[in-house]
Amino acid sequence: FLHLLLAAPPGPHPQDEGAARAGGAQAFAKRTLSWRLLGEGYSRQLPADQQRHVLRLAFRMWSEVTPLTFREDPGPGASADIKLGFGRGRHLGCPRVFDGVGQEFAHAWRLGDVHFDDDEHFTPPTSDVGISLLRVAVHEIGHVLGLPHSYRAGSIMQPNYTPRGPAFELDWSDRKAIQRLYGSCAGSFDTAFDWIRTERSPRGDATARFSTYFFRHGWYWLYENRNNRTRYGDPLPILAGWRGVPAQGIDAFVHVWTWGRDERYFFKGNRYWRYDSDRDQAYSEDERGHSYPRLISEGFPGIPSPLDTAFYDRRRQLIYFFKGPWVFAFDVPRNRVLGSSPKKMTEVFPAIQPRNHPLRSLDAAYYSYAHRAVFLFKGSAYWRVASDGDRKRRPGLPPNGLFPAQPIPDKWFDVCDVHASTLNM
Amino acid sequence: EALFHSRDRSDRAPAPLRRAPPIAGLPAAQRFLSKYGWAPGPPGAGPRRDGPPEGPQGAALAQALRRFQEVNALPASGRLDAATLAAMNRPRCGVPDTRPPLPAASAAPRAPPPPPGPRPKARPKR
To answer: How far, CA to CA in Å, does B46 sit from each of B28, B96, B121?
Structure first.
């Protein structure tokens, strides 16, 4: 047993060989893992609920960058995939004896157990003294998941504890290392959009900033384009960030933004909501006396519901509504559907490479200011619509032609689910 | 149980604080190098009263020290100096750092490949 702990890098249960990944390290085959702080393994230094909260957060941090989710298992210790506990000296039936204050402060095993030396001064994440229990827990869970030590500056897998500020996150290389074992996060979205904020600089001229949002079920992510990752700590519940819109299952978001209009709409079912950016909540009644939510058929005559998705084309001042294989082009200034609508999606957005087309039932359609392009999402793939720049470079491209499908995770990184029990952390 | 007499345990005697014995000399350093995978040989549960100290010796010790010094951005002298001892005494995780390279003369099968991820690099110089 000692050989397992000391002679081989830690890892999970003996899995079938198929689960073995790069470099001989093994990885869990399951995607939802259970964990438990053993009843006899609570620390004497921190309140019990604080210990469990820190461990829950530590597991959540790994699920924010992997397809893994972790749930706390209140059942008997034996049934949990990962068992954690605190001990001093000889502890929890472990043949490895802790050495007291200093040097070894925790260890982890391939079979998924983590022990903390309770002689060490473990402190909660908000403290800047002692040894941060959160950082040690994230490190040891990294071992359980199959990561070895790393001497790369900034890695959470460094063997030595380096006091730093209370806030820390899994950096790019740690994310890539764990994703080499478990793959990256994939999954469909309910909707995706860029949210524009217009601000006035101290000199009074207006600037526009934007953030990209992805919605899935009842939660959402803000995607930081400049850092190429989701915001630290996302996903969050939709209700926590967007007041007055449906709590889940949003079909589409449209931002009508012209010189004279700045209107943002969420669509779900046969109704739509207008969102007040300044007051950060949905309108109950807007300045034109429309009360919300409102029937789509009232606000957008000729548009069917429920929708698959929609996006606004600023150049043409058209909203493209998608339902099944059909596309409805809605002329916003004239407030009516174009006479030629509906048309088949394959006609309005033709495939550039034959038979490489989503055909019907899109999940999301999204104009990205970061990429200056429209993307159509379906499942875990996206199709980019040829822009005017593309057509200048390749005159043979059809208008609105779709480039071949690409995996979403190859362009938008770490949009990962977390276990529902940790969503509100 | 930590001794106490009053109901609210306010007079509980603090548990005696256990301290890890500092790594202050060669035997302890040799055990450290074996324990954390910098040198071959099984780590013992503690220093043995009789017989030779455990862990690497001679050239193997120098090589193990040099590798350890390199990844800790210390001068790779292969000698046990104060800075190396200080690095060994820092708070750390109990999982081994790396797998020990098999001694060249060993008849044992080849060691498995190194752990996944980039090879350990020296910390950037300050």
So the answer is: 9, 17, 31
